[in-house]
Design a protein that fits this description.
By secondary structure, the protein is mainly α. The chain is 87% helix and 7% strand. Strands 1-2 form a two-stranded antiparallel sheet. A two-stranded antiparallel sheet has the order 3-4.
Length: 195
């Protein structure tokens, strides 16, 4: 945009310079015509007042037109500078808006508390997943070991219970044998005491 601004200013300056040159030529030509068309009196030139007045009027008119053109060009330049400033401010606002959009697209609000970039969010989530996987693995192997130990203890208990049942049965049988033997001995004693 600055190049366009400088091009415009350069072209306007060139037109003004060219216009002054052409106008100066015509005023210069008019002055030469007045001087050449005048009469000589000794060393002096006698110029008609109407020619001088006409030359003066043309010169003043030319200067007024140039001033009007300068004012118009200055107004145009001011307007373009204002438009350029306005466009720069609009561009800055749009760039801010674009940056805000890019940031909102690249950021995620985490737990509603703070914003983090998507890449960091992904790393955080993968970190959580890995930590949870490690915890789950540790819990699985701990539970597996506990189940194995429980099965072992249950088997030991069942073996002990079977052994106790066997012992109880044997003890019961022994008790019955002893009770029978005792009864037999009592019966023998009772037979001996009675006989």
């Amino acid at each position: 945009m600055n190049k366009d601004h400088f091009k415009t200013a350069f072209l306007l300056s060139a037109f003004l310079f060219f216009g002054f040159y052409v106008q100066a030529q015509s005023i210069n030509d008019q002055f030469k015509q007045v001087v050449e068309g005048s009469n000589n009196y000794q060393e002096y030139k006698v110029i008609k007042q109407s020619h001088i007045n006409s030359l003066w009027k043309n010169t003043v008119d030319t200067l007024q037109r140039k001033e009007a053109k300068y004012a118009q060009i200055a107004t145009t330049l001011n307007e373009r500078e204002q438009a350029l400033k306005k466009q720069h401010s609009q561009l800055a606002e749009k760039e801010k808006s674009l940056q805000a959009s890019i940031n909102s697209a690249n950021e995620i609000t985490f737990l509603g508390l703070f914003s983090i970039e998507k890449g960091n969010y992904r790393m955080l989530m993968w970190g959580f997943i890995i930590v949870l996987a490690v915890i789950a693995t540790v819990l699985y192997f701990t539970a597996f070991a506990a189940r194995k130990e429980a099965r072992y203890r249950i088997k030991l208990f069942e073996d002990l219970q079977d052994e106790f049942k066997t012992y109880k049965t044997k003890a019961n049988d022994n008790e019955k044998k002893l009770a029978r033997a005792l009864q037999d001995e009592r019966n023998k004693l009772a037979e001996y005491n009675l006989l």
